[in-house]
Each structure stands twice: as structure tokens, then as C-alpha cells.
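Support request, please re-run this one:
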Amino acid sequence: MTRDMTQGNITEHLVSYAVPLLFGNLFQQLYHTVDSVVVGQFDGKEALAAVGAAGPIMNILTFLIVGLSMGASILMSNYFGARRWHMLKSELATSVIAGFLFTVFLSILSFAGSSFFIRVTQTPEEIAPMATTYLQIISLGLIFTFFYNVYSSALRAIGDSRAPLYVLIITTFINVFLDIFLVGVLDMGVTGAAVATVISQLISSVCLILYIRLRVPILWLTPHEMKLRLVLLKKTVDFSSVSALQQTVLYLGRLLVQSGVNALGVDAVAAFNAVSIIDSYVLAPGDSLASSLMTFCAQNRGGKQYDRIPAGFRRMMGMATGCCAVIAVLVLALRRPLTGIFLKPEETLALAEAMSYLVPMASFYFLSGITNTFQGYFRGIGRLNMALAGTFVQIPVRVAVSYALFSLLGIQAVAVGTALGWTCMAIFDAFMYRRQPVEKS
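Re-run finished. Output below.
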């Protein structure tokens, strides 16, 4: 179902579009969460730490693909808002062809270099082989990740955030079943968890392509339409490269932080993996609201409805910060049972470290709502360089403060570094918001 955000109630559009995105993000998180819960409960903290050690590298690969899809989505939203249907399909075709070639290259590079990447991040020797195996198998499934993301982005560009959610719900349950069967029944360990994820991603990409073929003719590409247009490729690269670079910088920073945590030992790695997953769920609403604002701004810019953009920004800022504040209270109240989902009761040191991390971290969750809203706004109006600049402000602060405090605070140092990074980013974004009016297309 398409959604034209250039007309009608602004708040209704933002919320209606964001809710399916939110559930989609939550179910997306389940892919990695289920892997961690199942291997942690069946194989112990070493297996959990191995999945956690591979996580930041896997996220860099995934978000290179997400960055490419995000850039294409902004352009497709512009064309949809302007009702330029031919350009919409041409942009999708160009993105599919170029993205496919890029993902194949990325998969080969990741598979061949998995062992090196794991060593570089100072992963403890006792879990390095498991982490390498997990990363290699995930690398083989990146092409399915690409197809799901590019077609999801196309659907979201035309206002359909529900279909990707429905597909994701189905395949998440498939992933849960496969994880339990391969890890719990067949005792395949982290190998089984990785295989389950790849199979689930394959099914999700096939389901989404079939849905578009049967229900969304505006996005179905015939062989005649499957052409790479150099003019659009340049635009797509301009947008996608900035998005991909931003995602890479963000997860490179997390990779550097993970390296510092890895040096603290297996208990710290297992604890940090557990709280990182909790963080990912907490931050999902802000990410979803930001994506909703991005599509809203992009459609209205394409449709030349410029006065609706700042109104949407203001309403989203209130919703995002309020949502994050409520979630923070819940995390503080439930931090013991939440960490117990991933760690066994007898793993007392890891549990204590995980709970100590959540206190300072949850206290500053509201800052993520502020920065995410600015990010969605800048992307939607085509100022991706501002979104990138904000990340460049945040990450060095996060990494530097974390490393400075590791010896004193353990993994709590990451929470303090993240909070200070968000603070600096929010100040920078607010300053640039006042100086960067919407450029008329």
C-alpha cells in the first residue's frame, strides 16, 4: 500500500508509517538476538562472546549495504513525491544492478578476510575460531541481505512500510525454529546459528520479490527495464556513498570500542554483547521514527511542499525524545531480568558488569532520540553531508572517552563515552539545523 505524505495530516503520516518500521526493526534485531540467546543458553558464555565479537564486523558489512539502499530510497522518495514514475523504476533498476555487483565483491572480501578481521579486534584466542566461522557463513549470505534491503527501501520510498514488516515477521519465526533445531537439537553451535540466519535471509528476500511481482506493479522491473543508467548511478553513488560512509564510520567506532572490550576478557565480552543487544532494541524506536521523518521530508521536497517539512521535524522531535525517556525508565527497572535473558545465573561476574553498564547508559537514551531526529531530517532534505558530519563528531568522542576510562570503569566506560558523543552530536546538529534551510528541488 502506497502512502502519499505530501497531503493530509502530518502526525498521522509520521506515526502510521513509523509503527510498521518500528516492529520491523525489532524483528530485525531478533535475528542476532536469537543467535545470542540460543548459543548462550546451549553452549555457554564462550559461544555468546564469539557471536558478540563477530557482531561489529558483521554490522559494518550489513550497514554498507543499508547505506547504499538508504541513498537509493531518498531518490526514489523524491521521484514518488514528484510523481515521476519512470524515473522511480529507473532508479530502482540502477540500484539493483550496481548494488548486486558491490555486494558480491563485499562477500568475497569478507569471507577471505574473516580470520584477519577477528584477530585485529583482539578477540580472545579461545573464542576466535568460533567467531571466524560465524562471520564466514554470514558473509556468504550478504547477497540475500542486499536484495531484502533494496526492495524494502523501494517499498518504503512509496510509503509502504507494512509489507517488509510482514515478511520479516514470518522469516524471524523461521529463524527461531532453525536456531533451536540446528543449535539445540543438532548441536551445531555458532555454525548452526549462522546457517539459520542465512537461510532466513534467503527466504525474506524471495518473499519480498514475489510480493512486489504480485502486488506492486509500480516497482516490478521487466528484463527490458533492468538497465543501469549512468546519470542515475552517479546520483545514487553520491547519496549512497555518503550514507554508506556514515554507517561505516559509526560501526567502525563500535568495532574499535569492541576491540577495547575484548581486551578485558571473556566475561566483559559476554556482558557487553548482552547489553549491546538490549541497546539495539531500545534504539529501534528512534531509528524507526527517523526513517519515517526521512521519507516524509524526501516526498515533500520532491512534491515541492516545503512548508510541511519543518512542521514534521518539530512533531517528530517531541515524539522521539518522549519515547526514549519512557523506555529508559523501563530498562532501569528491569535491567536484572533483561540481562538474565542472555547470561546464566551462575555467570555472576558477567551479569554484574552488564547491569552496571545499563545504569549510566539508560540515563542518556533520550539523547539518541534527539540525534536520530536530526539525522532523519538531514537525510530527507538531501543534506547527507550534515548527517555524516554529525557522526564524525560523535564517534571520536565515544572511542576516546571509552579507551580513557576502560581501566577505571570496565564496560561502563562505553556508556559514558556514548553519552558524551551523543551530547556533542546533538549540539552540532542543532547549530547546523539553524544554518541549513531546505534547498528547493
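The chain has a mean pLDDT of 85. Residues 10-435 form one domain.
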